[in-house]
Amino acid sequence: MKKVLYLGLVMVLCFSMIGCSNSNAFKVGETEFSNEEVDKVKSILTATQSYTDADYLAQFKESKDNDDKIKQEVISYMIDNEVVYQQAQKDKIKVTDDEVNQKYSQIEKMLDTNQEYKKLLDDAGVDEDYLKETIKKDLAVQKYRENFEQDLKVTDKEVEKYYKEHKDEFKEESVEAYHILVSTLDDKNKTVDDSKKEELKSKAESLLKEIKNGGDFEKIAKENSDDKSSGKKGGYLGYFTKDSKNAQFTKEAFKLEKGQVSNVFETPFGYEIVKVTNKKTEQKSLEDSREEIVNRILADKYLDQVNSLREKSDVQRF
């Protein structure tokens, strides 16, 4: 889990806060972190997994058997973030209010178009003050990482060696698909209220029932899809990869086998129905993989640095 998180998939929402008064879980230097804070971060990660292509977060599903293991993973993640943040402070890395407000505005706009996700974060206690302080810490850690990586050189020899040793990891899967969108966004691009959403979900379920009863998918898409661009082509999207569209959408599409139609599922844009008509896997060349390989090597070197900082830090678990 830790390695993937450090690549930034849920970075903005996953730092802990200071100042709760209940029993403490761990301490980094003079900064203490409560069990309540650990639970909050765990809740954020759990909410976030539904909105990213993040199979590695599947372990965050509640289970009595693995709850303690999950908690220890979250604490380990929080400790690593904190030791980097404290080093950033020692290095006098500054984050301005303008930088924080700009990032907050971006996140606020995203949440405005996804009220369900916003509710999950509200339930986890992520209010404006929490989020802004989290952003401030996140940006400091981000700047520390950028400063660390800017002087690193990744050679052609390193890239070629990595590609040779991990060649099977550089295969690109794509699917050919059609979809029907029943939009839940109003004219101002904001999510409609709950009663209207229920009405729209019922419409999507009705369309799916029609398809399963033998209805022509393309004809139904032309007549009903709110994605007008693909709708006029019967919902045709062509071939696409996992990282080329919304993660919630591709997560569902890539579950399907050739010829299968999905159940109704929700994305920030509305209720979706997808039909996969073909799948293919292609080996990516070294040159096509070069940027990803460089990023992976830099990430590995950064993780080594994080581990080094952690070893030098005064960390106590309670």
Automatic annotation (TrEMBL):
Keywords: Isomerase, Rotamase, Signal. One of its GO terms (molecular function) is peptidyl-prolyl cis-trans isomerase activity. Pfam families: Rotamase_3, SurA_N_3. It is an enzyme of class 5 (isomerase). Gene3D superfamilies: 3.10.50.40, Porin chaperone SurA, peptide-binding domain. InterPro entries: PPIase_dom_sf (IPR046357), PPIase_PpiC (IPR000297), PrsA_foldase (IPR050245), Trigger_fact/SurA_dom_sf (IPR027304). It comes from Intestinibacter bartlettii. Its EC number is 5.2.1.8. It comes from the Bacteria. Residues 172-278 form the PpiC domain. Residues 1-25 form the signal peptide. This is Peptidylprolyl isomerase.
